[in-house]
Design brief:
434 Repressor (Amino-terminal Domain); single chain; Putative phage repressor; about 70 residues; mainly alpha; globular; 5 helices; about 60% helix
Length: about 70
């Protein structure tokens, strides 16, 4: 079973001892978007472009991220 993207991002970020702000900076996005994703409250703001930014920040391809998570 795939993990929800919010849980996946939060677990990744915490395991790498990153604040939401630090992770957002590495992903080239905002802290508010990371917070919304982690709270499963991202609505239309999590598009493929932002998903690709998250994947790159976690050192994986977008396709690998999509294999691991549900949106």
């Amino acid at each position: 079973m795939k993990q929800h993207i919010g849980e996946f991002v939060k677990e990744y970020r915490q395991s790498h001892v990153l604040s939401q702000t630090e992770f957002a900076k590495s992903a080239g996005t905002t802290q508010s978007l990371i917070s919304a994703i982690e709270q499963n409250n991202y609505g239309r703001h999590l598009n493929m472009r932002n998903a690709e930014k998250l994947a790159k920040a976690m050192n994986m391809t977008l396709s690998k991220l999509l294999e691991k998570v549900d949106f």
